[in-house]
Amino acid sequence: MATNCGASKRKASDEIDYVNFSIRGQDGSLLFYKVNNDTEFKHVFEDYCKKKRLEYATIQFLHEGQRVLGRQKPKKRNLEDGAEILAMKQVMGGGVATLIFY
């Protein structure tokens, strides 16, 4: 007769789910992250900016062409293992207002 020796079995719903993804900067560099599916992206994005010496408020993060907001979580965005998020500097201005008409 086998005994469990005090080790408790976890239910699948109690397990912590993690996701592995990378953030690619405009310079082509990659930083890899492994986070809990319930962690807000803001924590990861702030860490990325700190490591790259960037100002968080000036960077946009994109996944599959859609902006990723700091308050979102990987589970909400259905982020899969191995996904890549792009970090792009925001560009303000441009458009018709900057054209000079003669």
TrEMBL record:
<feature type="domain" description="Rad60/SUMO-like">
    <location>
        <begin position="22"/>
        <end position="85"/>
    </location>
</feature>
<dbReference type="Pfam" id="PF11976">
    <property type="entry name" value="Rad60-SLD"/>
</dbReference>
<dbReference type="InterPro" id="IPR029071">
    <property type="entry name" value="Ubiquitin-like_domsf"/>
</dbReference>
<dbReference type="InterPro" id="IPR022617">
    <property type="entry name" value="Rad60/SUMO-like_dom"/>
</dbReference>
<protein>
    <recommendedName>
        <fullName>Rad60/SUMO-like domain-containing protein</fullName>
    </recommendedName>
</protein>
